[in-house]
Amino acid sequence: MDNRPIGVMDSGLGGLSVLRVLHKRLPKESLLFVGDQGHFPYGTKSQGELQHLVLNIGNFLVAHNIKLMIVACNTATGAALPLLQGKLPVPVIGVIEPGAVAAIAHHPQTVGVIGTESTIKKGAYDRTLHRLAPKIKVYSHAAQPLVSIVEHGQTGTSAAQTAVNTELAYFTNHPVQVLVLGCTHFPFLAPEIQHKLGKDVLLVDPAFETIKQTIRLLTQKGLLAGQNQGTVRLYTTGRRTDLVAGAQKWLAGHFTSCEHVDL
Ligand code: DGL
Known about the structure:
By secondary structure, the protein is α/β, with parallel strands linked by helices. Helices cover 44% and strands 17% of the residues. The strands form two sheets. A six-stranded parallel sheet has the order 4-3-1-2-9-10, sandwiched between helices. It has a four-stranded parallel sheet with strand order 6-5-7-8. The chain binds D-glutamic acid.
């Protein structure tokens, strides 16, 4: 039994798509979330900048006595996962390998991946999917403008649907059976994405497999919490009111506190 918190980070509201699954599956765990809105967006930054930012957040979380870190950001996972695993004194889990595992579980012949500019350029999904299923056909496509639609609270609007239609037009000529939502902001646009691609395309949200792997690891290491109910503490490097609004919407208000922090 270990009641220390689990640390979770993202560039912004996208991390809440992982946090909501984590909190639902493991309500006894205390969670510490950092949304790096002060440096949003991540998807257009260099690998060096991303490594610096993410390691800084990792050190902040470790200073707050976490027992495990989840990098709830594909861009940060692609740029910094091995670095974090090498430097931090706690286990660190990313979202790309789980996302690829979840896609392959459906035995598709064609898989699409949408992500930030950085994630797609880095090619981590392509490599991981081909390692797991060498014959699979992968179509990867950057959809960076969709990140801002979510971050600025525009999901469910006609502007959101128009942006999704534009960004995913690529898949009209590159049809896929499964689409990996390779940016943690994108599950919040799932209705618009499904509407654009049609109901026959299966959308994969890496959060579910990520949390499955988290539970496995905590169980193996004897690190699961033993308390009745965990706390959910949110930090943002940006405006506190923005993260509060996002958490009201995407966590249905299930958080204990929300503070600004300079990192
Ligand atoms: N949510 C992040 C991801 O999963 C990054 C989005 C961004 O800041 O560009 O890649």
